[in-house]
Design a protein that fits this description.
It contains 15 helices and eleven strands. The chain has 429 residues and is of the alpha/beta class. The protein has three domains: 112 residues, Gyrase A, domain 2 (2-Layer Sandwich); 122 residues, tRNA modification GTPase MnmE domain 2 (Four Helix Bundle (Hemerythrin (Met), subunit A), Up-down Bundle), CATH 1.20.120.430; 139 residues, 3-Layer(aba) Sandwich (Rossmann fold). It has a six-stranded mixed β-sheet. It has a five-stranded mixed β-sheet with strand order 8-9-7-10-11, with helices on both faces. The longest helix has 25 residues. The two termini are 17 Å apart.
Length: 429
């Protein structure tokens, strides 16, 4: 492979900048600049020199041997002073070595995958960790990065390979007297995988929400105080407010963190019989987004209007404009802030309760692969029940399930995904 290099820390002025080199010529190039290298995994202070012999910077140099680095190759890191001029000078010096080239986006991580330092699910977990903005996203991404999904998939794979081997043994010895009936053990193995796989699959949609964010829609009649409440939750004037009913015509979205979870709060048009064509479009969009939202806040007035959308069991119904009407129940005023803390706490409680059912798998790709495996295993169970004469078909369905689960960690059928995944990484990853 080529030896690659790149700035691994963020661009711009900083206290420290990290330049990473990976590949078969990493040590020789670093030695040429630093004069000598510290022992493996031991940091040493070195003067880095350019091709003309001038000192570029005093840097901490850290070396990782092949098979013991992030990429699985020889890796050297220069910890430089974080000046843009220093970084540029060091990168320019590295570009002068004929055996080195600038890394492409995500190429360090791609090499970690190719050298089996990470599986594909871990790569996705790393991407999510770099993008994490909330505590829940950080915890979720780190769980995937630690290899939890790969570990559970390997357990499923091991049990299914055992089940397929038992069935194939009956095929190989079909013409001989084989006294052992393998169906009880096969059924036990299939039942165990089906149970845990179904549970994990059911939890993927909530896990996807933790990764992508929950949607909470504020719905109600015109002039109920929805936009004022949105502004209070956002802490800024995100939506136009006025006493004129029907001011909000389109769906306004504000992203925030509630109870450590990523949440997009939607301010929707007031639900009523539209007065004009534009308002009718707004009402239609409001209904569509509210129905699709994970949670709805029904902001009601004392007049208790009949809305074209009914609250579900876990939606929040709250009285608006509490500063005017005043009430001892759950009521809020976006204008004064009355009751907003209680409302935020209630939203957090409901979302945290849903998060308890989240699985380890976080992406639609994971869910689809597991659903394919579930379907194949259901078919395998049916074939096993038909007796030894259907063992060949049962074994093939199990093999189909194994291939689906192998795609979770990148063993098969994922080449078309790799360019898209690694394109989202920065150069230094």
């Amino acid at each position: 492979m080529d030896t690659i290099y790149s700035l691994a820390s963020a661009r711009g002025k900083a206290g420290v900048a990290v330049v990473r080199i990976s590949g078969p010529h990493a040590f020789s190039a670093a030695r040429s600049m630093a004069g000598s290298l510290p022992a493996i995994r031991k940091a040493g202070l070195r003067s880095l020199k350019g091709s003309e012999g001038f000192v570029l910077d005093e840097a901490l140099v850290l070396c990782f041997d092949e098979g013991a680095s992030f990429t699985g190759e020889q890796v050297v890191e220069f910890q430089l002073h974080g000046s843009t001029a220093v970084v540029r000078a060091v990168l320019d010096a590295l570009s002068g070595y004929p055996d080195l080239r600038l890394a492409e986006p995500g190429e360090f991580t791609r090499r970690a995958l190719e050298n089996e330092r990470l599986d594909l699910a871990q790569v996705e977990g790393l991407a999510d960790l770099l993008d994490a903005e909330t505590e829940a996203q950080r915890r979720q991404a780190f769980t995937v990065l630690s290899g939890a999904l790969g570990d559970i998939a390997e357990g499923w794979r091991r049990d299914l390979i055992r089940a397929a081997a038992l069935l194939e043994a009956t095929i190989d010895f079909a013409d001989e007297d084989v006294p052992v009936d393998v169906s009880p053990e096969v059924n036990e193995l299939l039942d165990g995988v089906l149970t845990t796989l179904a549970k994990e699959t059911a939890g993927t949609r909530i896990a996807e929400r933790i990764r992508d964010g929950f949607e909470v829609a504020i719905v109600g009649a015109p002039n109920a105080g929805k936009s004022t409440l949105l502004n209070a939750l956002a802490g800024r004037d995100a939506a136009i407010t006025s006493e004129i009913a029907g001011t909000t015509r389109d769906v306004i979205e504000v992203q925030m963190e509630l109870a450590g979870l990523p949440v997009t709060v939607l301010d929707t048009a007031g639900l009523r019989d539209a007065q004009d064509e534009v308002e009718a479009i707004g009402v239609e969009r409001a209904l569509s987004r509210a129905k699709a939202a994970d949670l709805r806040i029904f902001l009601k007035s004392v007049d208790d209007e009949i809305l074209p959308l009914d609250p579900q069991s876990d939606d929040i119904v709250v009285l608006g404009k509490a500063d005017i009407h005043g009430t001892d129940g759950l009521a809020v005023s976006g204008l004064t802030g009355q009751g907003v803390d209680r409302l935020v706490a209630r939203i957090g409680e409901l979302l945290e309760d849903r998060v308890k059912g989240a699985g380890i798998a976080t992406r639609a790709r994971h869910r689809i692969a597991m659903e394919r495996a579930l379907g194949a295993l259901d078919d395998a169970r049916i074939e096993v029940q038909h007796g030894p004469e259907r063992a060949e078909f049962a074994a093939e369905e199990i093999r189909t399930a194994i291939r689906a689960l192998d795609s979770l960690v990148g063993r098969v059928d994922v080449e078309h995904l790799l360019d898209e995944i690694f394109a989202s990484f920065c150069l230094g990853k």
